[in-house]
Amino acid sequence: MKAGAGFTCYGFDVLNDKARRALEWLNRHGRAAEMILGAKGIDVTALDIPARVGTKKHFTACNKVFDAARIYSIASGNKCDAEYTPQLVGLEGRRVEVIDAYGETRRFIVGRTSGWMPCHIEIARRDSHGGPAVTGAPFKSVSVIN
Question: Peptide bond before 118: cis, by omega within 30 degrees of 0?
C-alpha cells in the first residue's frame, strides 16, 4: 500500500492496534483534545477506525488518527502514551530483569524515545546510547535490580 513517496510493509494488525490505542488516548483527553483539534478543523468525535483491517479505508482512517494525535500532542505538550509498555511505566532509568511472554529472561535499563508518541527501549548498559524497542510484553515478571 502506498505511503508517501514509497510503500509500507507495516503489519495491518500492528497498525490497527497502535491506531486504536492512539484514539483511546485522544478520547481520554476529552474536551481539551476536542477544543485544540476543533480549532484546527479536526472533529475528534468523527474519528473512527473501521473494523475491517487491511483495506485502504482502514489505512486512511488510521493515518487520520495518527495525524490528529500528533497535532494534539504538539499543541498541548502531552505525549501520547499509546506505545509505552504498561509494566515499565515509572521504571524509566532503572535496571530491570524481566521474564518475557516467551519465557526469555533479560536485563536492561528502561529508557524511552522522544517525539510525540514515545516508546520504552531496552538500554544494555549505562554507557550505551539508545537501544531497541522493548519486546516480549506482557511480562511474566519484572524485578528492579541494582
Answer: no
Query: 134: domain range?
Result: 86-145
Q: What is the value of pTM for the model shown?
A: 0.85
Angle 30-39/56-76 helices, nearest 10 degrees? 100
Quick one: CA dihedral 77, 82, 84, 86, positive or negative? positive
Pairing of strands 105-112, 95-99: antiparallel
What's the number of domains the chain is made of? 2
From 76, 100, 132, the end of a domain falls on 76
Read off the DSSP letter of residue 128: -
If asked whether residues 98 and 62 sit together in one domain, one would say no
Amino acid at 73: S
Per-residue pLDDT tens digits for 66-91: 999 999 999 999 999 999 999 999 99
